[in-house]
Amino acid sequence: MSSVIRIDHVAIVVDDIDSALDFWRDALGLEVTHVEDVPEQQSVVAFLLTGESEVELVKPTADESGVYRYLHKRGPGLHHICFQVDNIEVALAKMRKHGVRLINPEPVIGTGGKRIAFIHPESTHGVLIELYELTYQEPEIRLARARELADRVRAQGQVVAANVLEFLRGLRDTASEEIFDDS
């Protein structure tokens, strides 16, 4: 029989992660464990350590995502509570047996390679619930996603640097033309 191991995280949907981190990290003092782009969920997430659990800040990256619709319907705030379970298939079978409405009848891969499934708020008295089972691939997937994010940041930095250099060259060329025009 599957059992709940712990509350893994409480997710908060935000419209600006940097602004949210001003409170959660800087004012409250929680440590950011990692930031991850999750393309399949069309969001960027930042995890902040709170003892045995985490706070997950979730920002949508696409207008068609469920998180985006949620944010624009309800505004920033509590999105869901995630419980770690030891066997997600058994947990979902138990939910089905009790007539619980499942958003994900079968597990899907979530952040870091976790196997996850969401339970509809209609069955939980208004709270979106996520169940997750840790997989052995999670550390590898988190590392790969961190590398992808670092590569994108590095590439964007190179684009910005090239644009700044071009701008400065333009200023130099304009200044040189002005010097020669004055003589």
Describe this structure in words.
- The protein is α+β, with helices and mostly antiparallel strands and 183 residues long.
- It has 2 domains: 4-135, 2,3-Dihydroxybiphenyl 1,2-Dioxygenase, domain 1 (Roll); 136-183.
- 41% of the residues lie in helices and 30% in strands.
- Strands 2-3-4-1-5-8-7-6 form an 8-stranded mixed sheet.
- The protein is elongated, with a radius of gyration of 22 Å.
Key terms:
183 residues, alpha+beta, 2,3-Dihydroxybiphenyl 1,2-Dioxygenase, domain 1, 2 domains, elongated
CATH homology superfamily of the largest domain = 2,3-Dihydroxybiphenyl 1,2-Dioxygenase, domain 1
The helix/strand order is EHEEEHEHEEEH
What gap, in angstroms, lies between the N and C termini?
Answer: 89 Å
Note the total helix count. Answer: 4
CATH topology of the largest domain: 2,3-Dihydroxybiphenyl 1,2-Dioxygenase, domain 1
The structural class is: alpha+beta
Summed over residues and divided by their number, the pLDDT gives a mean of 86
The low-confidence parts are none
Q: What would CATH call the class of the largest domain?
A: Alpha Beta
Helix fraction bin: 40-55%
How many distinct beta strands? 8
User: How is the biggest beta sheet arranged?
Assistant: 8 strands, mixed
Number of domains: 2
Which overall shape is indicated by the principal axes computed on the Cα atoms? elongated
CATH architecture group name of the largest domain: Roll
> How much beta, percentage-wise?
25-35%
